[in-house]
Specification:
Elements lengths: L1 H31 L3 H12 E9 L9 E5 L2 E4 L5 E7 L1 E3 L3 E4 L5 E4 L7 E3 L4 E3 L2 E5 L33 H4 L6 H13 L5 H12 L5 H8 L2 H6 L7 H13 L5 H12 L4 H9 L2 H6 L10
Parallel strand pairs: 1-9, 1-10
Antiparallel strand pairs: 1-4, 2-3, 2-6, 5-8, 6-7, 7-10
Helix pairs in contact: 4-5, 4-6, 6-10, 8-9, 8-10
Amino acid sequence: MLNMMMKKKLTIISIIVILVVIVVAGLIAWRQKPKADETTSTDSKKSFSVLWGTITDEQHHSLVDIVISLGGVGTQTDAQGQYALVVPAGDYSTPIFRNANATQQYEPTDMIDSQISLQEGYDLNRDFQLRTTDQIIAVNDAMPSTSTAVPSPSAKPTPTPSPCAYNTIKSLSPTVENRVKYTYCLALGREAEAGGLAYWKGVLQGSNDPLGLVVTFSQTDEFKINNKVTSLSNEDYVKLLYRKFLLREAEPGGLAYWAGLLNGGQSRESVASQIIHSAEFAAKHSIYTGPVKQ
């Protein structure tokens, strides 16, 4: 009789232990499993970024119904010339611009190729000032999902490289005249007019610091008007310097450092000069280094 009672107690205890183990294991599994809505929200936030801004012409007029394509994704500007692109985070080259009928291509007035870096979960404000080109883009490039397909033109002219395209000017030999031409393209996004070329060539011949010419151009009214410098915050001004002169987006550490100097009272010309005199600038614009060719 005693043995029977002991067996029953052991059986009950065993059942209780098994139930406790099952319950504990279930709780652990439940706590470790991420919620579906949290996973979706986090993944969505990290996978995509937003590029947005305003597109204008060389007279600073808003351009309406301009198609901007980046990484296979496209959209059109609204009535105020504004656009917003939601694309996967990553590094991209300069976007493609054209009109809604795919009959006209545009290019940024700053023809220096620059990389657009979109970080996960962040947005980037990038304004573009455009001018027309003779090139026509194939219609199978990215178009807004709401757009109607446009028949492909029967003949496409051979693209003519812009005289200020980076691939064109980077091959210039380091003569005094070419340094002036390069500076016009780099800072102002255009070719030098005859009078300006002659004047700045004379200035550069009497200088031991060719990079000083770039600094001077970065402080001209034309540079400031083209890039709306007076309306830029200190952070946006640093971003502009990186794009124009280092040909890339500012990394968080560099942005914080240079903006901190500006917020602390250092002049914009001083910060521009330091960036232009940096080793990175010299590596990307070798025309300013080394002996001058005749």
